[in-house]
Design brief:
Two copies of one chain form a homodimer. By secondary structure, chain A is an alpha/beta fold. Helix content of chain A is about 40%, strand content about 20%. Chain A has 13 helices and 16 strands. Chain A has helices at about 45-50, 60-65, 70-75, 80, 95-100, 125-135, 155-180, 200-215, 230-240, 260-270, 275-285, 320-330, 335-360; strands at about 5-10, 15-20, 25-30, 30, 55-60, 85-90, 100-105, 110-115, 120-125, 140, 190-195, 220, 250-255, 270-275, 285-290, 290-295. In chain A, the strands form five sheets. In chain A, strands 4-14-13-12-11-10 form a six-stranded parallel beta sheet. A three-stranded antiparallel beta sheet of chain A has the order 1-2-3. In chain A, strand 12, helix 9 and strand 13 (about 250-255) form a beta-alpha-beta unit. In chain A, helix 6 (about 125-135) crosses helix 7 (about 155-180), helix 7 (about 155-180) packs parallel to helix 8 and helix 12 packs across helix 13 (about 335-360). The longest helix of chain A has 27 residues, at about 335-360. Chain A is globular.
Chain lengths: ~375, ~375
C-alpha cells in the first residue's frame, strides 16, 4: 500500500475525504503545517499532535543541506528522526533552489546551485531529488519541477512547462526503480505526486495537467502559484486547472495562503494545502483571529486583559491575555514565538475543520 | 495568612518541609526555576505545571523596566499577568542593579542606575524596591540589600553589611505600612524575607544573621555568594551561616548552583534555592544528565539514536534522540531551546525530589 484516497462527501466543487498513507489517516481538505528542518519552529511534536495535525510538510532542500539526507536515512528516515509517527510530505527541493539559492545554472540534466548557508555548490536532478526524498522517507513526495517565475514570456512559460514534464517522467522512472529503498520499518511505500505548471496561461495549464496525468501519478499538485501574481489570478488559474484533474485523486495546491484563501480553494475542490504564513506570521507577531488580523506588538494591547481570540479554544487563548502576549513579543521572549505559532496553527486547522464540516452538511 | 513553614522530617542538618503561601504549597528543599521577565524562557506555563514546579522566581529589576510595575499591578499582579496560579518569589532588584546596570551611584538613600536596555536613569531605595515588589505581588519578596563584591577589603565588607542592615529595617518598615496594597484578589498578604550579607567573613556573617533576625522576618536568605569566590569557600560560608539562622524559618540560598551543589546545600539545611544555570545552560546546549554534562552541539551525537538521558523520564528523553536534539541545536532551531530547557529543569527538579526522598528516609 502506498496511498488511498476516499471521497466521503461533496458540496458543489468541494470534497471531503480521507487520505490514507503508510503512517495514518488524514482528513481532507487539509492544511499541512510547514516543518522546514524537521521541526515546526518552536512547537514540540506532542503539541502538534494535540492540535490535531495529521500531516506535516518538510523541505527537501533544507534537510539535504542540514543535517543531510544520508544522516536522516541512517537514522531511519524523517519519521523516526523527528519522532513523528503521523504522515509527512516532502517537496522536491525545486522551489527552494529557485527561490533561496544563488548562482543556479539550469540545464536539461538538472540545476546546479549554491547553498544559501555556506555557498557550497550542489546539483539537483529529477533522479537526485528522488534519491533525496526516498532517503528522507516522507509518505508523499513530489516530482522535481521547475517553478516558472512571474511574470514570464509565453515562450519561456511553454519551455519551462515542457522541461517540468520531461523531469516528471524522469522522476517517476527513478522513483519506480528505487522506491523499495525507503528506510522505513513499516509496511507500504511512498507515493509520488506530479506537479502541474504552465504559468498563468490557462491553455498551458490544461496541457500540463493532461500530459502529467498521462504520465500517471496517485495525486496531482498545482505548482507555480503564489509567486507574485495578483490573488484574483491565482484563483482563476486554480479554478481552471482543477477542471482538468481527475476527480478520484487528491489535489494539492502548493504554498497558499491566508485563512480566507485556503477556505476558498477548498471550496473550489482542492484537498491539500501548505503555507509558511501561519508560522512565519506568528514569529512576526501577526496573529489570525475571528475578529481579523492582530499585530500583537501594538501598544494598544499592553493593558488588554482579554484573550487573543475570544472564540478560540486553543491553549493560548484559554490561558493568556493579550497583554501578556504583547509583553512577551515586545521583550523578544522565545515564548512569544511558541505561543503565537500554536495559536495561528490552531486558527488554520480550525478553519479547515469548519470547511470539512460544511462540506459534510452539503454547504 | 502570609506564610507557613512546617518541617516534616530531618536527617542530620537537612530538613524536609512544606512552605505554604497564599498561592499554594511548596515542598522543600525546593529549586525555583528563574522566570526573569515573567516567563521561564521558552517554556509554557502548563509545561511548568506538568514538571511539578511549585514556585517560580521572577526578577524585579527586569520587570520594573519591562513591562513596568504599574502595568503588572493594573493587570492584577504577576500571577494573573503571567497566568500562573502557583507561588512566586521576586528578588529585590539589588543584585541586578549591581551586576547588570551601568553608572550606578550608591548613597545611604539608595542607588541610582542606568537601564541596561536604553540607558535611562532610575533610582531604587528600600522603599521603592518594596513598592515595586508589592505592585508585582509575588508571594515572597526580598528586602533591598547591597550585594558585596568579591574580593573586598574587610572595612568595605563591614560597611556594606551595615548598609544592608539599615536597608533591611527600612524595607520592613515600608512593607508593613503598605502590604495591604498588594493587587491580589485572593486572601493573605506577601511575606518579606531578610537577607544575610557579610562577604566571606564568618564573623560578619554571624553578626549579619543575628542582627537581621533581631529585625525579624518570616524567612532568611543568604545573599552575596556565587559572586566569583571558590566553591569550597561558598560551602564554608553557607555551613557557618546556617548555624546562626532559626531552625523554624525557611532558609533561602540565593543564586546557586550546579545539581551537585544544590543537593549538597540542601544537605547542609538550605530549604530554597534558585539559579539561572539549568535554563541558561540549556540555551547553550549544555545538558545535565545522570551520566554527566553533555554538550549537545558535538558532532559525536549527530548519529546517536539514544535518548539524551536514559534514566530520565521527561517528555524530551522519552521521545527524542540525541541526534535530533543535536540537529535542532546545530540548526539554531527554537525548539532546541524549548526541549533543552524542559530537560534541564526536569533534571534539577528530580535532583530535589531525590533529596527530599532521602531526608524522609533519614539519610
Amino acid at each position: 500500500m502506498s496511498l488511498e484516497f476516499h471521497i466521503e462527501a461533496t458540496a458543489e466543487s468541494a470534497r471531503r475525504g480521507r487520505l490514507i498513507t503508510p503512517h495514518g489517516e488524514v482528513e481532507t481538505p487539509v492544511f499541512m503545517p510547514v516543518g522546514t528542518l524537521a521541526t515546526v519552529k518552536g512547537v514540540p511534536q506532542d503539541v502538534l499532535e494535540d492540535l490535531g495535525v495529521e500531516i506535516l510538510l518538510s523541505n527537501t532542500y533544507h534537510l539535504y543541506l542540514r543535517p543531510g539526507v544520508e544522516q536522516v536515512r541512517k537514522l531511519g528516515g524523517l519519521h523516526r528522526f523527528m519522532a513523528w509517527d503521523r504522515s509527512i510530505l516532502t517537496d522536491s527541493g525545486g522551489f527552494q533552489v529557485f527561490s533561496l539559492s544563488e548562482l543556479r545554472k539550469l540545464t536539461e540534466e538538472g540545476v546546479t546551485f549554491r547553498s544559501h548557508l555556506d555557498g557550497s555548490s550542489h546539483f539537483f536532478s529529477p533522479e537526485s531529488a528522488m534519491e533525496a526524498q526516498i532517503g528522507l522517507g516522507a509518505d508523499i513526495i513530489m516530482a522535481f519541477d521547475e517553478c516558472t517565475e512571474y511574470p514570464a514570456e509565453p515562450e519561456r512559460v511553454r519551455k519551462s512547462m515542457e522541461l517540468t514534464l520531461r523531469w516528471a517522467e524522469r522522476s517517476k522512472k527513478h522513483f519506480e526503480g528505487h522506491k523499495q529503498e525507503v528506510p522505513w520499518d513499516c509496511a507500504g511505500t511512498q507515493a509520488l505526486f506530479g506537479i502541474v505548471q504552465g504559468g498563468m496561461d490557462l491553455g498551458l495549464r490544461r496541457e500540463s495537467a493532461e500530459r502529467t496525468i498521462e504520465i500517471g501519478f496517485p495525486g496531482y499538485a498545482i505548482g507555480g502559484l503564489s509567486v507574485g501574481e495578483p490573488r484574483a489570478l491565482t484563483r482563476e488559474v486554480v479554478a481552471a486547472t482543477i477542471q482538468h484533474l481527475p476527480a478520484d485523486k487528491p489535489r494539492y495546491l502548493m504554498g497558499v495562503g491566508t485563512p480566507e484563501e485556503i477556505a476558498e480553494y477548498a471550496r473550489l475542490g482542492i484537498d491539500m494545502m501548505d503555507c509558511v504564513l501561519p508560522t512565519r506570521a506568528a514569529r512576526h507577531g501577526l496573529l489570525f483571529t475571528s475578529e481579523g488580523k492582530i499585530s500583537i506588538k501594538q501598544a494598544r494591547y499592553a493593558c488588554d486583559r482579554g484573550p487573543l481570540d475570544p472564540k478560540c479554544g486553543c491553549r493560548v487563548c484559554s490561558r493568556y491575555s493579550r497583554a501578556y502576549l504583547r509583553h512577551l513579543y515586545a521583550s523578544n521572549e522565545v515564548l512569544a514565538q511558541v505561543l503565537n505559532t500554536v495559536h495561528n496553527l490552531t486558527f488554520y486547522l480550525d478553519t479547515m475543520r469548519a470547511v470539512r464540516h460544511s462540506i459534510s452538511l452539503g454547504r
